[in-house]
UniProtKB/TrEMBL annotation:
One of its GO terms (cellular component) is cytosol. Its cofactor is Zn(2+). Its EC number is 1.1.1.1. This is alcohol dehydrogenase.
């Protein structure tokens, strides 16, 4: 893959002035303005962002739905692709000009979590929506032109022409020749989160039955992963009937609109599947939906995978004795993928057509129209809207 031409090293070690979408308060419109992006420090990478898309996690953080993570001004965004502008001291696996994607759930490769084959967590660089500064020195790499710090988000902050990311949160995809950089953007969050939940966490197998609650990009990625694994029945559950057309293209065989159901959704699913599905995936982030997903699985072996972001303080809507029926429930972060070591292989599979990426990109807009892109996602009219710089 050929790297876009830029800078030719002239900006290395210097403060870069560029455009960014800055949020100054919960739910306030983004302001496109000039900011300063400081050079990468030890084990950090400065990236020129070429494409960035929007995830519901960005919406949740921007709205300030979780009071504990409110920190403004802030640069949101965590799904993107770009080219390395410069690297800090100690960075050896990534070099200037490499095509990369930032990831919110990093992999340092050295901690006990990274060395454990059963986990894709990282002790130092795992997903942490509360973190708002760089890990190395507790300072931001962004500032207004007047010198006021601007906070980071989800280890990445991609709503800016340039960002600084810990090297543990950067995946080198420079040698993936079968995908263009636009499609690589999807590998930064949503698609591996959903597909990986089906492959790595649930281990969906040929002939199995699946229910997906919430048909946003992550839910449809689950469906696509289940389709690729040979699932015989994939039931999509969503209150927006318009999503079924797109869902069919990504493997969903049946559709349930809870608002039109005459009985609880889990009862409908049990009737459709002779007792319940083998696997259910909760992608909506709602406690009541989680209960439906759990009860829709088959007694004895049913597994529910939780992917939705639950901002409510409500606890699990499940009585402990209900677990004695043989149903299980587990959470999933980034689809169980270890980002730096396993995502390149996943990208290669996508390039071979194992996973269809084209259907996830529904809109493209210039970066300056980020507020419109948010409106499209919130209204349910887009899956992934790519912002190009």
């Amino acid at each position: 893959m050929t790297s876009p031409e830029f800078a030719n090293g002239e900006t290395r070690g210097k403060i870069i002035t560029c455009k960014a979408a800055v949020a100054y308060g919960p739910g306030e419109p983004f302001v496109i303005e000039q900011i300063h992006v400081h050079p990468p420090q030890n084990m950090e990478v400065r990236i020129k962002i070429l494409y960035s898309s929007i995830c519901h996690t960005d919406v949740s953080g921007w709205k300030g739905e979780n009071e504990a993570q409110r920190a403004f001004p802030r640069i949101f965004g965590h799904e993107a692709s770009g080219v390395v502008e410069s690297v800090g001291k100690g960075v050896s696996e990534i070099k200037e000009g490499d095509i990369v994607v930032p990831i919110f759930n990093g992999e340092c490769g050295e901690c006990c979590y990274c060395k454990c084959e059963k986990s894709n967590m990282c002790e130092r660089f795992g997903v942490n929506p509360m973190r708002k500064v760089m890990e190395s020195d507790g300072r931001s790499r962004f500032s207004t032109i007047h010198g006021k710090p601007i906070f980071h988000f989800m280890n990445t902050s991609t709503f800016t022409e340039y960002t600084v990311v810990d090297s543990a949160c950067v995946v080198n995809l420079h040698h993936v020749q079968t995908l263009n950089i636009k499609k690589l953007t999807l590998l930064s969050c949503g698609v591996p989160t959903g597909v990986g939940a089906a492959w790595n966490i649930a281990n969906v197998h040929s002939g199995s039955s699946v229910a997906v609650f919430g048909l946003g990009a992550v839910g449809l990625a689950v469906a696509e992963g289940a389709r690729a694994s040979g699932a015989s029945k994939i039931i999509g559950v969503d209150i927006n009937p318009d999503k079924f057309i797109k869902a069919q293209a990504l493997g969903v065989t049946d559709f349930i609109n809870p608002r039109e159901a005459e009985k609880p959704v889990y009862e409908r699913i049990r009737e459709m599947t002779n007792g319940g599905v083998d696997f259910s995936f909760e992608c909506a982030g709602l406690s009541d939906v989680l209960r439906d997903a759990f009860l829709s699985t088959h007694e004895g072996w049913g597994l529910t995978v939780v992917l939705g972001i639950h901002t409510s303080p409500r606890l699990l809507p499940i009585h402990p004795m209900e677990l004695f029926d043989g149903r299980r429930i587990v959470g999933s972060v980034f689809g169980g993928f270890k980002g730096r070591s396993q995502l390149p292989h996943f990208a290669t599979k996508c390039g071979r057509g194992v996973v269809k990426l084209d259907d996830f990109i529904t809109h493209e807009l210039p970066f300056e129209e980020v507020n419109k892109a948010f409106d499209l996602l919130i209204s349910g009219k887009s899956l992934r809207c790519l912002l190009h710089f």
